[in-house]
Predict the structure.
Amino acid sequence: MHLPTQTDIAIIGAGPHALTLAAHLLRKRSQMQEKMVVLDPSGFWMHQWQRLFSMLEISHLRSPAAHQPDPNPQALHQFAKYRASELFSPHDLPGAKLFQDFCQTLVCRWQLQQRVHRALVRQITPLKRGSCLRIGLSGGKSITAQRVVLAMGGGMLNFPTWVNKITTPYPKYKLCHSNEVDLRQLRLQGERVLIVGGGLTSGHLAVGAVARGAQVLLLSRRRLMEKWFDTDPNWLNSSHSQKFVAERDWEARWEMIQQARNGGSVTPDMMAHLRQLEQAGQVALHQRCQVVKAEWRGDRWQVRCQDGAILECDRIWLATGTKLDATQNPLLADVLEEFPTGIVNGLPVLDDHLRWQGCNLFLMGGLAALQIGPTACNLAGARMASDRIVNALTKPSLVRS
Ligand SMILES: Cc1cc2nc3c(=O)[nH]c(=O)nc-3n(C[C@H](O)[C@H](O)[C@H](O)COP(=O)(O)OP(=O)(O)OC[C@H]3O[C@@H](n4cnc5c(N)ncnc54)[C@H](O)[C@@H]3O)c2cc1C
């Protein structure tokens, strides 16, 4: 479909957050389908999500089946009625293919494929005192929208500081962030791979590398922490979230988010798998350990750790996550300049509807964490964010002109 020059609602990103919003919005007002444009460089729904799951060969989600984009919390369970073997125990964790197929049914039900345009957004500029926004696309085109929702995911790749201090030239593929590692393409027979990070992604990478014949050194800043979910499920019911919402100091909220997420963790079944590989001599766990320096020497890495240990390896993979910082996001530069708002350690202070103060821009995902809480970037957070944004998009009393 041809990209219009004007639209009522523009959603930037076509991942699970955007899909959750679209499903919630259309269930409330199906006629809004025609007033909506979705922009994503892939031109497809769920492309980035599926890409990461395939590249890391992740068999199932970490979150239970209740967390999915449909407004009906039972919808994925109902969809899985004849595919029960794709709900993994002990918490009904949906298989990757089951989840993807389910999301596709939502795309079909709400005829959403035709709403996605293949486009990379480069700039968002408030017009008419923030009542509408111009969205600049790579290639020079632009589109004007009355309301814009930013649902573009995880932020910038996070590289530890020692990476920028590497002075010896090295082949690029020898040091990668986890988002760039495609296990399917690799043969690692006889190689040693150093994986940095203590979250579930480092576990997936370790298992994948061993399956390809590598020996793995898994290095984490602290002891590997075992948890089924990355945030305590109490954040999904009232007790924790009521306390969070009652806290009106944004810095204190930021602290609560850090404490609740408490860094990366691995699931108990992944931990058991890693222990097996450790016993088989295929994985060595270096816990409470930090890299201070890496040098490419000939055809190998030489890595110095804080405790003085020297590790040698063929590749380094960084499972060090992503960094969210509104002040570093080029899409928010014009908005920040025209409508300066409070920023707490990179997170913007939004109104109750996740709207940027003074303009018709809404944020979903981790950037909305000061309002949504520690689950903001997860599927559960997508639902909470959608409830708030949909109200502001549909209730005349809340629409800002
Ligand atoms: C490997 C992995 C597994 C995860 N598993 C779970 C899980 O089981 N349960 C859970 O709750 N959470 C999970 N998460 C966390 C979170 O749910 C996911 O990161 C999820 O993909 C976030 O959805 P999103 O829509 O915000 O981002 P994304 O899926 O990243 O989608 C954002 C989209 O925006 C597009 N985009 C980015 N920049 C632009 C631009 N400038 N212009 C246009 N489009 C743009 C991207 O191309 C992408 O398609 C997982 C995360 C990872 C990395």
The chain has a mean pLDDT of 95.
